[in-house]
Amino acid sequence: MTDSPRGAARTEAIMRATLELGAEIGYAKLSIEAIAARAGAGKHTVYRRWPSKGALLMDSLLHLHRSSLDYPDTGDIVADLRTQIHAAVDLLGNPPFGPLYRALIGEAQHDPALAEALNERFIAPQTEMTLARLRTARDQGLLSPSLDLDLAMAVLSGPLYFRFLITREPLTHEYVDRLLQSLFDGMGAR
Amino acid sequence: MTDSPRGAARTEAIMRATLELGAEIGYAKLSIEAIAARAGAGKHTVYRRWPSKGALLMDSLLHLHRSSLDYPDTGDIVADLRTQIHAAVDLLGNPPFGPLYRALIGEAQHDPALAEALNERFIAPQTEMTLARLRTARDQGLLSPSLDLDLAMAVLSGPLYFRFLITREPLTHEYVDRLLQSLFDGMGAR
Protein backbone atom coordinates (compact mmCIF):
# COMPACT_ATOMS: atom_id res chain seq x y z
CA MET A 1 0.00 0.00 0.00
CA THR A 2 1.47 3.37 -0.95
CA ASP A 3 0.69 6.35 1.20
CA SER A 4 1.09 10.05 0.70
CA PRO A 5 3.40 11.57 3.32
CA ARG A 6 0.31 12.85 5.14
CA GLY A 7 -1.35 9.43 4.88
CA ALA A 8 1.76 7.73 6.25
CA ALA A 9 1.91 10.17 9.18
CA ARG A 10 -1.75 9.51 9.93
CA THR A 11 -1.23 5.74 9.74
CA GLU A 12 1.69 6.06 12.14
CA ALA A 13 -0.39 8.23 14.50
CA ILE A 14 -3.18 5.64 14.54
CA MET A 15 -0.76 2.80 15.31
CA ARG A 16 0.89 4.82 18.09
CA ALA A 17 -2.52 5.67 19.55
CA THR A 18 -3.41 1.95 19.49
CA LEU A 19 -0.36 1.01 21.57
CA GLU A 20 -0.70 3.98 23.93
CA LEU A 21 -4.37 3.47 24.63
CA GLY A 22 -3.94 -0.31 24.75
CA ALA A 23 -1.22 0.11 27.38
CA GLU A 24 -3.44 2.47 29.38
CA ILE A 25 -6.77 0.64 29.38
CA GLY A 26 -6.03 -2.88 28.13
CA TYR A 27 -7.02 -4.60 24.93
CA ALA A 28 -10.50 -5.64 26.09
CA LYS A 29 -11.64 -2.05 26.60
CA LEU A 30 -9.90 -0.71 23.50
CA SER A 31 -12.26 0.56 20.78
CA ILE A 32 -11.69 1.79 17.25
CA GLU A 33 -13.61 4.94 18.18
CA ALA A 34 -11.30 5.77 21.08
CA ILE A 35 -8.19 5.03 19.01
CA ALA A 36 -9.42 7.29 16.20
CA ALA A 37 -10.17 10.08 18.66
CA ARG A 38 -6.73 9.79 20.26
CA ALA A 39 -5.07 9.87 16.84
CA GLY A 40 -7.20 12.80 15.66
CA ALA A 41 -8.55 10.67 12.80
CA GLY A 42 -12.05 9.67 11.76
CA LYS A 43 -13.11 6.15 12.68
CA HIS A 44 -13.91 5.42 9.03
CA THR A 45 -10.27 6.18 8.22
CA VAL A 46 -9.30 3.45 10.65
CA TYR A 47 -11.88 0.94 9.41
CA ARG A 48 -10.87 1.62 5.80
CA ARG A 49 -7.40 0.35 6.53
CA TRP A 50 -7.95 -2.29 9.23
CA PRO A 51 -10.79 -4.80 9.23
CA SER A 52 -10.70 -5.39 12.99
CA LYS A 53 -9.21 -4.27 16.29
CA GLY A 54 -6.99 -7.37 16.22
CA ALA A 55 -5.60 -6.55 12.78
CA LEU A 56 -4.86 -2.98 13.87
CA LEU A 57 -3.13 -4.17 17.03
CA MET A 58 -1.00 -6.60 15.05
CA ASP A 59 0.13 -3.93 12.60
CA SER A 60 0.86 -1.54 15.44
CA LEU A 61 2.95 -4.04 17.39
CA LEU A 62 4.89 -5.24 14.36
CA HIS A 63 5.49 -1.79 12.91
CA LEU A 64 6.70 -0.17 16.09
CA HIS A 65 8.88 -3.05 17.24
CA ARG A 66 10.15 -4.21 13.88
CA SER A 67 13.83 -3.70 14.60
CA SER A 68 13.83 -5.03 18.17
CA LEU A 69 14.46 -8.64 17.29
CA ASP A 70 17.22 -8.45 14.70
CA TYR A 71 19.67 -11.28 14.91
CA PRO A 72 23.26 -10.86 16.12
CA ASP A 73 26.11 -12.81 14.50
CA THR A 74 29.30 -12.49 16.51
CA GLY A 75 30.55 -15.96 15.52
CA ASP A 76 29.62 -17.43 18.93
CA ILE A 77 26.34 -19.27 18.38
CA VAL A 78 25.50 -19.82 22.06
CA ALA A 79 26.21 -16.19 22.97
CA ASP A 80 24.17 -14.97 19.99
CA LEU A 81 21.20 -17.16 20.85
CA ARG A 82 21.42 -15.97 24.44
CA THR A 83 21.53 -12.28 23.38
CA GLN A 84 18.62 -12.70 21.01
CA ILE A 85 16.40 -14.72 23.35
CA HIS A 86 17.14 -12.44 26.30
CA ALA A 87 15.95 -9.51 24.14
CA ALA A 88 12.85 -11.48 23.14
CA VAL A 89 11.85 -12.27 26.73
CA ASP A 90 12.51 -8.65 27.77
CA LEU A 91 10.02 -7.62 25.09
CA LEU A 92 7.46 -10.33 25.98
CA GLY A 93 7.82 -9.93 29.72
CA ASN A 94 7.17 -6.18 29.90
CA PRO A 95 4.68 -3.50 28.89
CA PRO A 96 3.73 -2.21 26.45
CA PHE A 97 4.62 -5.10 24.12
CA GLY A 98 4.02 -8.02 26.50
CA PRO A 99 0.39 -7.56 27.58
CA LEU A 100 -0.70 -6.39 24.11
CA TYR A 101 1.06 -9.28 22.37
CA ARG A 102 -0.65 -11.67 24.80
CA ALA A 103 -4.01 -10.09 23.92
CA LEU A 104 -3.21 -10.43 20.21
CA ILE A 105 -2.46 -14.13 20.58
CA GLY A 106 -5.67 -14.50 22.58
CA GLU A 107 -7.63 -12.86 19.79
CA ALA A 108 -5.93 -15.09 17.23
CA GLN A 109 -7.40 -18.17 18.97
CA HIS A 110 -10.86 -16.97 17.87
CA ASP A 111 -9.82 -15.55 14.49
CA PRO A 112 -8.03 -17.95 12.09
CA ALA A 113 -7.23 -15.16 9.59
CA LEU A 114 -5.47 -13.21 12.33
CA ALA A 115 -3.64 -16.35 13.48
CA GLU A 116 -2.44 -16.94 9.93
CA ALA A 117 -1.32 -13.34 9.50
CA LEU A 118 0.54 -13.44 12.82
CA ASN A 119 2.36 -16.57 11.70
CA GLU A 120 3.22 -15.23 8.27
CA ARG A 121 4.29 -11.78 9.33
CA PHE A 122 5.94 -12.35 12.72
CA ILE A 123 6.45 -15.96 13.80
CA ALA A 124 7.70 -17.36 10.47
CA PRO A 125 10.24 -14.55 9.79
CA GLN A 126 11.54 -14.77 13.39
CA THR A 127 11.83 -18.54 13.08
CA GLU A 128 13.57 -18.25 9.72
CA MET A 129 16.14 -15.79 11.15
CA THR A 130 16.93 -18.13 14.03
CA LEU A 131 17.14 -21.16 11.74
CA ALA A 132 19.46 -19.26 9.38
CA ARG A 133 21.73 -18.39 12.33
CA LEU A 134 21.71 -22.04 13.49
CA ARG A 135 22.45 -23.26 9.94
CA THR A 136 25.43 -20.93 9.66
CA ALA A 137 26.79 -22.29 12.93
CA ARG A 138 26.23 -25.85 11.76
CA ASP A 139 27.99 -25.16 8.47
CA GLN A 140 30.92 -23.73 10.45
CA GLY A 141 31.11 -26.98 12.40
CA LEU A 142 29.96 -25.35 15.65
CA LEU A 143 26.86 -27.55 15.85
CA SER A 144 26.45 -31.24 15.21
CA PRO A 145 25.49 -32.02 11.58
CA SER A 146 22.73 -34.26 12.94
CA LEU A 147 21.09 -31.53 15.05
CA ASP A 148 17.36 -31.24 14.24
CA LEU A 149 17.17 -27.47 13.83
CA ASP A 150 13.36 -27.27 13.75
CA LEU A 151 13.16 -29.21 16.98
CA ALA A 152 15.89 -27.05 18.54
CA MET A 153 13.79 -23.97 17.70
CA ALA A 154 10.71 -25.58 19.27
CA VAL A 155 12.59 -26.56 22.43
CA LEU A 156 13.87 -23.00 22.81
CA SER A 157 10.66 -21.12 22.06
CA GLY A 158 7.89 -23.50 23.16
CA PRO A 159 8.63 -23.40 26.90
CA LEU A 160 8.81 -19.58 26.82
CA TYR A 161 5.42 -19.29 25.14
CA PHE A 162 4.03 -21.88 27.56
CA ARG A 163 5.06 -19.64 30.47
CA PHE A 164 3.88 -16.51 28.67
CA LEU A 165 0.43 -17.82 27.73
CA ILE A 166 -0.38 -20.61 30.17
CA THR A 167 1.37 -20.56 33.53
CA ARG A 168 2.31 -16.84 33.48
CA GLU A 169 5.49 -17.60 35.38
CA PRO A 170 8.13 -14.90 34.88
CA LEU A 171 10.20 -14.94 31.71
CA THR A 172 13.66 -14.54 33.18
CA HIS A 173 17.12 -14.54 31.63
CA GLU A 174 17.96 -17.33 34.06
CA TYR A 175 15.19 -19.51 32.61
CA VAL A 176 16.43 -18.81 29.07
CA ASP A 177 19.92 -19.86 30.16
CA ARG A 178 18.58 -23.13 31.59
CA LEU A 179 16.83 -23.85 28.29
CA LEU A 180 19.97 -23.08 26.30
CA GLN A 181 22.03 -25.26 28.58
CA SER A 182 19.58 -28.13 28.21
CA LEU A 183 19.83 -27.82 24.45
CA PHE A 184 23.61 -27.60 24.29
CA ASP A 185 24.65 -29.83 27.14
CA GLY A 186 21.72 -32.24 27.06
CA MET A 187 19.42 -32.84 29.97
CA GLY A 188 21.03 -36.00 31.24
CA ALA A 189 17.69 -37.78 31.20
CA ARG A 190 19.46 -41.11 31.54
CA MET B 1 -21.30 -26.71 45.99
CA THR B 2 -23.87 -29.38 46.84
CA ASP B 3 -26.60 -30.10 44.37
CA SER B 4 -29.87 -31.95 44.61
CA PRO B 5 -29.99 -34.89 42.18
CA ARG B 6 -32.18 -32.76 39.92
CA GLY B 7 -29.78 -29.84 40.24
CA ALA B 8 -26.86 -32.06 39.37
CA ALA B 9 -28.66 -33.42 36.31
CA ARG B 10 -29.44 -29.87 35.17
CA THR B 11 -25.82 -28.80 35.70
CA GLU B 12 -24.66 -31.76 33.64
CA ALA B 13 -27.21 -30.92 30.90
CA ILE B 14 -25.96 -27.33 30.74
CA MET B 15 -22.32 -28.45 30.47
CA ARG B 16 -23.19 -30.98 27.75
CA ALA B 17 -25.15 -28.32 25.86
CA THR B 18 -22.15 -26.00 26.09
CA LEU B 19 -19.83 -28.52 24.45
CA GLU B 20 -22.40 -29.61 21.85
CA LEU B 21 -23.31 -26.10 20.79
CA GLY B 22 -19.69 -24.97 20.99
CA ALA B 23 -18.70 -27.82 18.65
CA GLU B 24 -21.51 -26.89 16.26
CA ILE B 25 -21.17 -23.12 16.01
CA GLY B 26 -17.81 -22.28 17.59
CA TYR B 27 -17.00 -20.43 20.78
CA ALA B 28 -17.30 -16.92 19.30
CA LYS B 29 -20.98 -17.40 18.40
CA LEU B 30 -21.85 -19.29 21.57
CA SER B 31 -24.24 -17.46 23.92
CA ILE B 32 -25.52 -18.22 27.39
CA GLU B 33 -29.07 -17.82 26.02
CA ALA B 34 -28.57 -20.47 23.35
CA ILE B 35 -26.89 -22.86 25.81
CA ALA B 36 -29.76 -22.45 28.29
CA ALA B 37 -32.32 -23.08 25.55
CA ARG B 38 -30.51 -26.24 24.37
CA ALA B 39 -30.30 -27.51 27.95
CA GLY B 40 -33.94 -26.69 28.68
CA ALA B 41 -32.87 -24.37 31.51
CA GLY B 42 -33.46 -20.71 32.22
CA LYS B 43 -30.57 -18.38 31.46
CA HIS B 44 -30.63 -17.08 35.03
CA THR B 45 -29.98 -20.63 36.20
CA VAL B 46 -26.83 -20.58 34.09
CA TYR B 47 -25.72 -17.13 35.23
CA ARG B 48 -26.32 -18.05 38.87
CA ARG B 49 -23.69 -20.76 38.62
CA TRP B 50 -21.21 -19.38 36.07
CA PRO B 51 -20.06 -15.76 35.93
CA SER B 52 -19.07 -15.90 32.26
CA LYS B 53 -19.13 -17.94 29.08
CA GLY B 54 -15.43 -18.70 29.61
CA ALA B 55 -16.01 -20.05 33.12
CA LEU B 56 -18.85 -22.26 31.86
CA LEU B 57 -16.72 -23.57 29.00
CA MET B 58 -13.88 -24.39 31.38
CA ASP B 59 -16.14 -26.33 33.75
CA SER B 60 -17.70 -28.17 30.83
CA LEU B 61 -14.37 -29.18 29.31
CA LEU B 62 -12.84 -30.24 32.63
CA HIS B 63 -15.90 -32.10 33.88
CA LEU B 64 -16.55 -34.08 30.73
CA HIS B 65 -12.92 -34.98 30.05
CA ARG B 66 -11.75 -35.45 33.58
CA SER B 67 -10.68 -39.06 33.22
CA SER B 68 -9.05 -38.75 29.79
CA LEU B 69 -5.62 -37.80 31.02
CA ASP B 70 -4.99 -40.20 33.86
CA TYR B 71 -1.41 -41.28 34.15
CA PRO B 72 -0.21 -44.79 33.31
CA ASP B 73 2.53 -46.46 35.36
CA THR B 74 3.74 -49.64 33.70
CA GLY B 75 7.27 -49.29 35.06
CA ASP B 76 8.64 -48.10 31.70
CA ILE B 77 8.93 -44.32 32.01
CA VAL B 78 9.51 -43.60 28.32
CA ALA B 79 6.60 -45.81 27.24
CA ASP B 80 4.35 -44.22 29.88
CA LEU B 81 5.24 -40.68 28.85
CA ARG B 82 4.63 -41.64 25.23
CA THR B 83 1.21 -43.17 26.03
CA GLN B 84 0.16 -40.18 28.08
CA ILE B 85 1.38 -37.49 25.66
CA HIS B 86 -0.07 -39.33 22.65
CA ALA B 87 -3.44 -39.29 24.45
CA ALA B 88 -3.01 -35.59 25.25
CA VAL B 89 -2.30 -34.62 21.63
CA ASP B 90 -5.20 -36.77 20.41
CA LEU B 91 -7.42 -34.73 22.71
CA LEU B 92 -5.89 -31.36 21.76
CA GLY B 93 -5.71 -32.11 18.06
CA ASN B 94 -9.35 -33.08 17.54
CA PRO B 95 -12.90 -31.83 18.09
CA PRO B 96 -14.72 -31.31 20.30
CA PHE B 97 -12.00 -30.76 22.91
CA GLY B 98 -9.31 -29.21 20.69
CA PRO B 99 -11.06 -26.17 19.19
CA LEU B 100 -12.94 -25.40 22.42
CA TYR B 101 -9.80 -25.70 24.55
CA ARG B 102 -8.03 -23.35 22.12
CA ALA B 103 -10.91 -20.87 22.52
CA LEU B 104 -10.70 -21.18 26.31
CA ILE B 105 -6.99 -20.39 26.28
CA GLY B 106 -7.71 -17.46 23.96
CA GLU B 107 -10.29 -16.14 26.40
CA ALA B 108 -7.86 -16.59 29.30
CA GLN B 109 -5.45 -14.13 27.63
CA HIS B 110 -8.04 -11.39 28.24
CA ASP B 111 -9.30 -12.66 31.60
CA PRO B 112 -6.68 -13.13 34.35
CA ALA B 113 -9.17 -14.83 36.72
CA LEU B 114 -9.95 -17.42 34.05
CA ALA B 115 -6.24 -17.89 33.35
CA GLU B 116 -5.60 -18.48 37.04
CA ALA B 117 -8.49 -20.94 37.34
CA LEU B 118 -7.29 -22.84 34.26
CA ASN B 119 -3.84 -23.13 35.80
CA GLU B 120 -5.09 -24.20 39.21
CA ARG B 121 -7.68 -26.67 38.02
CA PHE B 122 -6.14 -28.18 34.89
CA ILE B 123 -2.53 -27.26 34.11
CA ALA B 124 -1.12 -27.60 37.65
CA PRO B 125 -2.74 -31.00 38.40
CA GLN B 126 -1.63 -32.35 35.01
CA THR B 127 1.88 -31.05 35.60
CA GLU B 128 1.96 -32.51 39.10
CA MET B 129 0.90 -35.95 37.81
CA THR B 130 3.65 -35.92 35.20
CA LEU B 131 6.24 -34.71 37.72
CA ALA B 132 5.19 -37.43 40.18
CA ARG B 133 5.62 -40.05 37.45
CA LEU B 134 9.06 -38.62 36.55
CA ARG B 135 10.08 -38.53 40.24
CA THR B 136 9.13 -42.19 40.67
CA ALA B 137 11.26 -43.10 37.67
CA ARG B 138 14.14 -41.05 39.02
CA ASP B 139 13.86 -42.70 42.43
CA GLN B 140 13.95 -46.08 40.67
CA GLY B 141 17.21 -45.07 39.00
CA LEU B 142 15.62 -44.92 35.55
CA LEU B 143 16.40 -41.21 35.16
CA SER B 144 19.53 -39.30 36.02
CA PRO B 145 19.47 -37.83 39.57
CA SER B 146 20.54 -34.51 38.06
CA LEU B 147 17.63 -34.30 35.63
CA ASP B 148 15.79 -30.96 35.98
CA LEU B 149 12.23 -32.30 36.10
CA ASP B 150 10.53 -28.92 35.74
CA LEU B 151 12.58 -28.19 32.67
CA ALA B 152 11.87 -31.66 31.27
CA MET B 153 8.13 -30.96 31.63
CA ALA B 154 8.54 -27.61 29.86
CA VAL B 155 10.54 -29.15 27.01
CA LEU B 156 7.85 -31.80 26.51
CA SER B 157 4.78 -29.60 26.76
CA GLY B 158 5.96 -26.17 25.55
CA PRO B 159 6.57 -27.16 21.91
CA LEU B 160 3.17 -28.88 21.75
CA TYR B 161 1.37 -25.79 23.01
CA PHE B 162 3.42 -23.64 20.64
CA ARG B 163 2.12 -25.70 17.71
CA PHE B 164 -1.38 -25.76 19.14
CA LEU B 165 -1.68 -22.02 19.78
CA ILE B 166 0.81 -20.33 17.48
CA THR B 167 1.84 -22.20 14.33
CA ARG B 168 -1.17 -24.56 14.23
CA GLU B 169 0.99 -27.27 12.74
CA PRO B 170 -0.47 -30.74 13.32
CA LEU B 171 0.03 -32.38 16.72
CA THR B 172 1.21 -35.80 15.59
CA HIS B 173 2.43 -38.84 17.52
CA GLU B 174 5.57 -38.65 15.39
CA TYR B 175 6.28 -35.14 16.70
CA VAL B 176 5.74 -36.29 20.30
CA ASP B 177 8.22 -39.10 19.67
CA ARG B 178 10.82 -36.66 18.34
CA LEU B 179 10.40 -34.53 21.47
CA LEU B 180 10.74 -37.55 23.74
CA GLN B 181 13.81 -38.70 21.86
CA SER B 182 15.41 -35.26 22.16
CA LEU B 183 14.80 -35.35 25.91
CA PHE B 184 16.10 -38.86 26.47
CA ASP B 185 18.87 -39.11 23.92
CA GLY B 186 19.87 -35.45 23.84
CA MET B 187 19.84 -33.33 20.74
CA GLY B 188 23.54 -33.59 19.90
CA ALA B 189 23.80 -29.84 19.65
CA ARG B 190 27.58 -30.14 19.79
From TrEMBL, chains A, B:
Domain HTH tetR-type: from-to ranges: 8-68
Keyword Transcription appears in the UniProt entry: yes
Entry keyword annotation includes DNA-binding: yes
Listed Gene3D superfamilies: Homeodomain-like, Tetracycline Repressor, domain 2
Superkingdom of the source species: Bacteria
Keywords on record: DNA-binding, Transcription, Transcription regulation
DNA-binding region: 31-50
UniProt-recorded Gene Ontology molecular function terms: DNA-binding transcription factor activity; transcription cis-regulatory region binding
InterPro entries: Homeodomain-like_sf, HTH-type_TetR-like_transc_reg, HTH_TetR, Tet_transcr_reg_TetR-rel_C_sf, TetR_C
Pfam families noted in UniProt: TetR_C_11 (PF16859), TetR_N (PF00440)
Name of the protein in question: HTH tetR-type domain-containing protein
Organism: Kitasatospora cheerisanensis KCTC 2395
